[in-house]
Design a protein that fits this description.
It is a single chain. With 246 residues, the protein is an alpha+beta fold. Helix content is 51%, strand content 20%. 27% of the residues are buried. Strand 4 and strand 5 (111-118) form a beta hairpin. Strands 6-5-4-9-8-7 form a 6-stranded antiparallel sheet, with helices on both faces. It is built from 10 helices and 9 strands. It has helices spanning 3-22, 28-35, 39-51, 68-82, 87-98, 140-147, 151-164, 172-185, 222-227, 229-244; strands at 26-27, 55-58, 63-66, 101-108, 111-118, 133-135, 188-191, 198-204, 214-221.
């Protein structure tokens, strides 16, 4: 695929994400200033999204806003992933009982990708959103996802990870030590691994739709997680028990 087409596709999605963050009509300048796009190409891309039916343009107020076509595009995804079952209510209960941010993640190639978040009243400094990706072998939920695999599967992934990055090489012994710690405990407690001061306590959920393994975590400032560790582990175990017997 041509580099220009990839760049345009990336920018189009980033424009839509700006509206997701602000949730109100936005002027062209607001969007371009936030993304740092040139006026000429950014304006042309916004006009293209209007022509395609993904954005609506209010000429009187000179603002843009997503159309229902955007909502229809992803409307089926949540139901396909979570259905009408107990998962999302269980995550809401986990959030209410711990008072911390709840994160649901799934493997995406060599990363753990956040697919659902319920933020606490005090937003995490990492500013995570759905779609955020973390290194599979260096993050708490990534290690949880690896712990559910066989040793042979983990070794194949480790080789791919090492081949994709010369700056983050890992030995088999190093990675398996971390994975086996998660297996022995039944959960991961990652501290300061992605953002200084922030941690996550996570566990693997029962097999989800399409045979995929999900990991659920409770994230927050490390001192608070340490104080609440027993409570959080118990609440995570309760969620898993509920899903296994639903």
């Amino acid at each position: 695929m041509a580099e220009g087409a990839v760049k345009s596709a990336k920018r189009a999605l980033e424009i839509l994400e700006v509206f997701s963050r602000h949730r109100r009509p936005l002027a062209l300048k607001e969007v371009l200033d936030e993304l740092g796009y040139p006026t000429s190409s950014g304006s042309a891309l916004m006009k293209s999204l209007v022509a395609l039916g993904y954005l609506d343009y209010d000429r009187e107020r000179r603002t843009y806003f997503p159309t229902m076509r955007i909502a229809a595009l992803g409307d089926w995804v949540g139901k396909a992933l979570f259905g009408d079952g107990p998962l999302l209510p269980a995550l809401e209960g986990l959030h209410a009982n711990t008072g911390e941010t709840v994160v649901l993640a799934v493997q995406s190639d060599l990363h753990a990708q956040y697919v659902h978040l319920i933020h606490s009243h005090e937003p995490l400094r990492i500013g995570a959103q759905p779609g955020t990706r973390r290194p599979l072998a260096r993050s708490g939920l990534g290690l949880v996802l690896l712990s559910a695999k066989t040793d042979a599967e983990i070794e194949r992934l480790r080789r791919r990870i090492n081949a994709s990055s010369e700056d983050d090489l890992q030995s088999r012994e190093e990675l398996m030590a971390r994975v086996n710690t998660v297996r022995a405990r039944g959960y991961a407690f990652s501290k300061h691994s992605i953002s200084q001061g922030v941690g996550i306590i996570g566990m693997a959920l029962p097999k989800g739709p399409f045979g995929r393994t999900f990991a659920v975590g409770v994230a927050g400032q490390v001192p608070r997680l340490e104080d609440k560790q027993d409570l959080i582990v118990t609440e995570l175990q309760t969620v898993i028990h509920r899903l296994e017997h639903s």
